[in-house]
Amino acid sequence: MMETDPQPMAVPPGDDEPYVPGAPLRLGSILCWQTFAILCGAGIQLSIARGAPASLLMGALLMTGSLLLSRQAFHFATRNQKRPFLAMLFFFLKLALFLGLAIFGLSGQMLGAMSFAAGATTLPMAIVADACYPICRQ
User: Fold this and answer.
1) Angle between helix 53-78 and helix 122-132 axes, rounded to 10 deg
2) For residues 10 and 28, what is the distance between their CA atoms, to the nearest angstrom?
3) Beta-carbon count within 10 A of 119 CB
4) Cα–Cα distance between 4 and 24 in angstroms, integer?
5) Whether 113 contacts 56, CB under 8 Å
6) Of the candidates 68, 75, 116, which has an alpha carbon nearest to the alpha carbon of residue 93?
7) What pTM value is reported for the model?
8) Is the Cβ–Cβ distance between 58 and 114 less than 8 Å?
9) Which residues contact residue 17 at a Cβ distance below 8 angstroms, ignoring those fewer than 6 apart?
10) Are 14 and 27 in contact (CB under 8 A)?
11) What are phi and psi of 113, to 5 degrees?
């Protein structure tokens, strides 16, 4: 018996959201896991008196901001009433965020690079933790 690709679900009339296959992004649950990871990392850094908790937080905020800007840009680029200008604006804002942090934060030794990298890894860890152990089902 041959399997065929599943047909996309019908979108209710008037809804401007496209059908995207796969599990929805549970942003609230992911942010809870990320907050837990940041608190654990900052607690460890403070308890052993090494690292920079502010850099850890900045790395986490950069990745979370990047996710939110990408999500918003994708939303404007794929919905029925496409707004390419707004999608490009969000992508350029994301690029400016990354470049600004690289130029001003990391080059001037304002941020601890290793703590920043540890903070940046909290988002992928939170996504995997949410996939394995979701806090809430939406």
Assistant:
1) 70
2) 27
3) 30
4) 23
5) no
6) 68
7) 0.71
8) no
9) 11, 79
10) no
11) -65, -45
Q: Residue type at 69? A: L
Can you tell me the distance from the alpha carbon of 104 to that of 97, in angstroms, rounded to the nearest whole number?
11
d(CA 138, CA 124): 20
Dump pLDDT digits (tens) for 48-107. Answer: 888 888 888 988 998 998 888 888 888 888 877 777 888 888 889 888 888 887 777 777
Q: How far is CA 23 from the centre of its chain?
A: 16
Helices (H), the chain: 27-48, 53-78, 84-100, 113-120, 122-132
Residue pair 48/37 in contact (Cβ under 8 Å)? The answer is: no
pLDDT digits (tens, 9 = 90+) for 9-46: 554 444 555 555 556 678 888 899 999 999 999 999 88
d(CA 63, CA 66): 5
**57 closest CA partner among 46, 72, 49:** 46
> Which position has the token pair 């990047």?
66
